[in-house]
Design a protein that fits this description.
242 residues, alpha/beta, Rossmann fold, 7-stranded mixed β-sheet, 7 strands, 38% helix, globular, Diverse_substrate_MTase, Methyltransferase type 11
Length: 242
Amino acid sequence: MSDITPFLLPGVHASPNIQKAPDIYEIENCAADPDHSIERVMATLASWHDKIVLDLGAGTGFHLARFHESAAHVFAVEPHDPSRLRAMARVAAAGLTRTSILTGSAEQILLPDKSVDMIHARFAYFFAPDCEPGLQEVARVIRPEGTVFIIDNDLRTGTFASWVRCSPWVGSTTPDEVEQFWAHHGFTLHRIASEWRFQSRADLEAVVSIEFPGELARQILHEHQGTSVEYHYCLYSRQYEG
């Protein structure tokens, strides 16, 4: 039996990196954006202090504690059963009493209409241009003047982007098409320069091995020295009107 559970919810697709290698993906999460540049930009656009936050496609719940620090409540929606169980265990171990873990998907959020103030989706479902059903569901659950943040790779600049552009896993959609899609749907693009910063070379090698196919991963590791990687993000934001 495959270690990736078959999906029954609409619009759900597998994420082999986190679902096949969750412990290595945890290392990746710890190394990514170590100075929290993404959250700093988000906070300048919309505060989640005393707000209801939805982490959509929450995976194993890595980002929940950061929102829980000041949010009134955090809902985490994750369709993949093993990832959701890890998120539940994380929440229990950390005592995140204002956090709820829910099954669901971007196209089927099991929350009432106009029930959340902020939505955060990081590398989850919202890959243009095939994500309009999820955007319709987002529009249903977001409150008037609520803000949606969608985080993706910036494939124009940075070392990591140069690796992705060489990968057979990258889709055929161009950065221009992606950015035009989000602009068409009312989102504003914020480019964020950051990095991966690993504690050891072994950690970097392990993460590269789950993000890229074998031959390309070997080439990357042969050519790239050290324990850090230039990594840039696209943060798309939209405040929804009443």
